[in-house]
Design goal:
By secondary structure, the protein is α+β, with helices and mostly antiparallel strands. It is built from 18 helices and 46 strands. The strands form 14 sheets. Strands 17, 18, 19, 23, 24 and 25 form a six-stranded antiparallel sheet that branches. Strands 26, 27, 28, 29, 30 and 31 form a six-stranded antiparallel sheet that branches. Strands 7, 8, 10, 13 and 14 form a five-stranded mixed sheet that branches. Helix 1 packs antiparallel against helix 7, helix 10 runs antiparallel to helix 13 and helix 12 crosses helix 13. The longest helix is centred in the C-terminal third of the chain and has 22 residues. It is globular and about 100 Å long.
Length: 847
């Protein structure tokens, strides 16, 4: 299979299928992977040393036996097949990628691990540094806070001419120390502090709280020759609490931010913090306290009932689309930015978020940081009332339930206006009689009237915003029917999601050791790096503890975590993973599986055989790439049923786990064997079938409508990437609404996370075309001025119409189009309909 990721190209050959099949993995949570492919082709080597890694070990014990037999494979992990030494597998995989650079364009040297806060870094030069024609130390070597080598730490340098040792010492302005300002004095009083920072130390005597740094050498330290690309050594630091928490994020069903992290032994509590980052100047220095907790999770505060603002600490925009409809500053905004609504958010100076463990003796190092740019698309910060009023919202109420808005309008943290479904709680609707007073323009009394009012509680889905809306003069004889029609409309418009979050608070005991042997697999592996492919090979084989000590970059737990997620999401024959944990040294990964390896292996074989049969049935040699994509999309839509029960079960468990009966619904097994799955199953099945059809495809993870964990695909057709969401294409009324969309359109409802591919490669999956979109392909797309007439034509012929217009279609434009249709077909007919992402469904038959 030929994979071109725009940075490097490999030709990977499929291995001939052997007798063994292997475990598969559950397509779950907001994590993600990249592209590149290949299958292991090496043979078992005998007599090599096999590495055994413990949970906290920084050194490696060896087993010199290195046998091909399965004597060292536990009964739980035993599956018939050929086995290969883990060290041999690592070596073969590294050799395959030997000519590839990192996504950042440099090579890796040996990691420097386990430094304490006061240790210095000592480098041995093989040449006389004083003879070099350089002005600054940073022309030889420099230390950075980020893997892109954009944010230098500013350490101190010293050189001994006799020993030729270069000593790198802590900066006088270390990064990551915790400010005491703004914190409750009871909390401050629990720990050592001065008037600025917790746990103060003399200038230049200690590193800050960064857990990982990047030491870049620009010359060969043995010869002094200038390198074509830098060589980077990952430097890991330990605090007084030696374990560094690892943080992930998610969102509650009402749109609040949740941070989760791994437990740290000895921590009295955890500080959730943020710091400001400048593209020009880097990190500002200290980190600021947001909240403290003794738990390993934190969620942003819920607003009071009736509030119209939330998550204010995460607001990141300068201009919001809603400003164009404001009665207060609309003219000023238009004068400065033009007539068309836009949103402008801050990329240059923005916040990052992290967590740090605290104790009386000191702190851990900072966790990995989360960029506001990764969060902002999914965080609602206010009700966009001005836009909502423009689209039919009435503060006072409505004359009938038919007038109730289907969607509410919300400003997200990036300033974009999101159109979100309104959840009317019809079970709690109450009918009251109230007295209304009518006045003229001057406020003079005209008359009074007793009015029947129906009050319906509602919440804008995916947000904490809730209130009550009124319907006047309702007819009690039709009340239940009217309420039922509201519920029916919501069900029609509600989108389908269903991804699980992976648990990273897994214990990794010191006595647990890595597998000595790995069962060989026959699946084509999608990977973007040697580390990712090696992990995928182990996970496909059901290995629980994976030795990664041969990979220098694995010492950076952020890179290692990215590679784990890429391996998982891009190789859907990996079934049933519930979580993973990395040991402190970055030398091993522990994977937890839902089911035993032999069960997963049988499922893998079933899926592989079924997928092969499907492709032989629906794909022919003369098909174009687009025709193949259409065939696979339509096959899954025709044969899969969305598992509402599995989604409800996941929601009840906050997407953290599922009951055993629903495990398969989140995998390709559920889609292809059972025909019953959620989005993770649809996306995994599509990738498996696309791979067999020789289509370049990846699984994408993220959020649907801002806060629903979701999975979909991107596919490359004729050299260009497209968005494809089979789950939501499988819709009885609004079918194929997400078939080959560009990013600009897809971002209105789909928010990619940065986990499904390794961060440095995400830019290679940009989708910009949009001309292969389903309705355009089938000549069913029309602009606002023409679509009313075309809808009327379809209604006259079939009683049903399904067409597409602009993705930005809103309530007011939809109502205007409906009026156009009414004028054409005649006002004596009732018209019913829905719309989403520009796709309009209309019918004259309410059933």
């Amino acid at each position: 299979m030929k994979i071109d990721n725009k940075l490097f190209m490999f030709i990977f050959q499929k291995k001939k299928k052997g007798a063994a099949i292997f475990p598969i993995l559950l397509c779950v949570i907001l994590l993600c992977g990249f592209f590149g492919s290949g299958v292991l082709v090496g043979k078992q080597l005998y007599g090599e040393q096999d590495k055994v890694i413990s949970a906290n070990a920084e050194s490696v014990q060896t087993d010199t036996e290195g046998k091909e037999s399965k004597e060292n494979v536990s009964e739980e992990e035993f599956v018939d097949g050929n086995y290969i030494l883990s060290s041999t597998l690592a070596s073969m995989t590294i050799d395959k990628y030997q000519d590839a650079t990192s996504p950042y364009g440099y090579t890796y040297g040996d990691a420097i691990t386990g430094l304490t806060r006061t240790d210095h870094i000592v480098l041995q030069a093989g040449f006389a540094v004083e003879d070099m024609d350089v002005e600054y130390w940073t022309e030889i070597v420099n230390l950075y806070a980020d893997p892109e080598l954009k944010d230098p730490i500013g350490p101190c340098f010293a050189y001994d001419e006799g020993s030729r040792e270069i000593t790198i010492s802590p900066s006088n302005y270390p990064f990551g120390k915790i400010y005491v300002s703004g914190i409750n004095r009871d909390i401050v009083g629990r720990y050592t502090h001065d008037n600025i920072f917790f746990f103060p130390q003399d200038s230049g005597s200690a590193w800050g709280n960064l857990s990982t740094m990047y030491l870049a050498s620009y010359v060969d330290l043995q010869t002094g020759e200038k390198l074509d690309v830098p060589q980077v050594q990952i430097v890991t630091m330990n605090g007084e609490l030696p374990v560094t928490p690892r943080m992930t994020y998610s969102f509650t069903d009402d749109g609040r931010v949740t941070f989760n992290w791994s437990r740290v032994e000895g921590a009295a509590e955890y500080f959730v913090c943020r710091y400001e980052y400048s593209e020009e100047y880097g990190n500002e220095g200290g980190i600021s306290y947001i909240a403290s907790t003794t738990e390993t999770t934190w969620t942003s505060e819920a607003p009071e009932y009736g509030a119209v603002m939330a998550n204010i600490d995460f607001k990141n925009y300068d201009v919001a689309e809603d400003d164009w409809f404001s009665s207060y500053n609309k003219d000023e905004v238009i004068a400065e930015y033009g007539e068309s609504p836009i949103f402008i958010y801050d990329t240059a100076d923005r916040y990052f978020y992290c967590v740090i463990a605290i104790s009386e003796i000191g702190t851990s190092m900072m966790s990995n940081s989360v960029d506001i740019l990764s969060l902002q698309d999914s965080i609602p910060v206010s009700v966009a009332y001005d836009t909502w009023v423009e689209n039919g919202y009435s503060y006072s109420g409505y004359e009938s339930t038919d007038e109730l808005c289907a969607y509410g309008y919300v400003t997200m943290a990036n300033g974009m206006t999101a159109m979100k479904l309104i959840n009317y709680d019809t079970d709690k609707a109450i009918a009251v009689e109230d007295r209304y007073i009518y006045t003229d323009e001057d406020g003079n009394y005209l008359e009074g009237e007793n009015v029947n009012i129906l009050k319906i509680p509602y919440r804008i889905e995916g947000t904490p915003f809730e209130d009550i809306i009124s319907v006047f003069n309702y007819d009690n004889n039709y009340l239940q029917k009217d309420l039922a029609s509201i519920e029916e409309r919501e069900d029609m418009l509600r989108k389908r999601a269903g991804e699980m979050t992976l648990d990273n608070d897994i214990s990794f005991e010191e006595e647990e050791t890595a597998a000595e042997q790995v069962r060989e697999v026959s699946f084509e592996i999608t990977a973007n790096s040697a580390l990712s492919e090696y992990l995928a090979s182990n996970m496909l084989a059901g290995v629980s503890i994976i030795d990664v000590s041969d990979f220098s970059e694995a010492s950076d737990t952020s890179i290692l975590g990215d590679a784990v997620l890429e391996a998982y999401y891009q190789n859907p024959y990996i079934f049933g993973i519930t979580g993973y944990q990395i040991n402190q040294a970055g030398t091993a990964v522990k994977i937890e599986y839902e089911e035993a390896a032999d069960i997963n292996a049988k499922k893998q074989q079933e899926v592989q055989e079924k997928a092969t049969a499907i492709i032989s049935e629906i794909i022919t040699p003369d098909m174009t790439e687009l025709e193949k994509e259409l065939a696979i999309n339509q096959y899954l839509c025709a044969t899969c049923t969305y598992s509402d029960a599995a989604l409800v079960n996941a929601e009840e468990n906050n997407f953290e786990y599922i009951d055993d009966i629903y495990i398969d619904a989140f995998t390709a097994y559920g889609a292809l064997i059972n025909g019953d799955c959620v989005c993770a199953g649809y996306a995994a099945a599509f990738k498996i079938l696309a791979d067999l059809a020789d289509l370049d495809c990846v699984v994408v993870t993220g959020m649907l409508d801002g806060n629903l964990p979701h999975a979909w695909n991107k596919i490359r057709i004729d050299g260009e990437w497209e968005i494809l969401d089979v789950t939501n294409n499988d819709n009885e009324f609004l079918s194929n609404a997400l078939f080959n969309l560009p990013d600009e359109a897809g971002s209105r409802t789909l928010t990619e996370c940065n986990d499904y591919v390794m961060d440095g490669y995400m830019r290679n999956y940009t989708a910009t075309n949009g001309q292969r979109e389903y309705y355009r392909l089938n000549e069913l797309y029309f602009d606002y001025d023409e679509i009313g007439e075309r809808l009327a034509e379809q209604l006259s012929l079939n009683g049903v119409a399904l067409l597409r217009t602009e993705y930005s279609l809103d309530d007011s434009t939809f109502n205007r189009i409906a009026e156009d249709v009414y004028q054409i077909i005649g006002l004596d007919k009732d018209l019913y309909g829905y719309y989403w992402m520009g796709v309009i469904y209309l019918t004259t038959n309410p059933s």
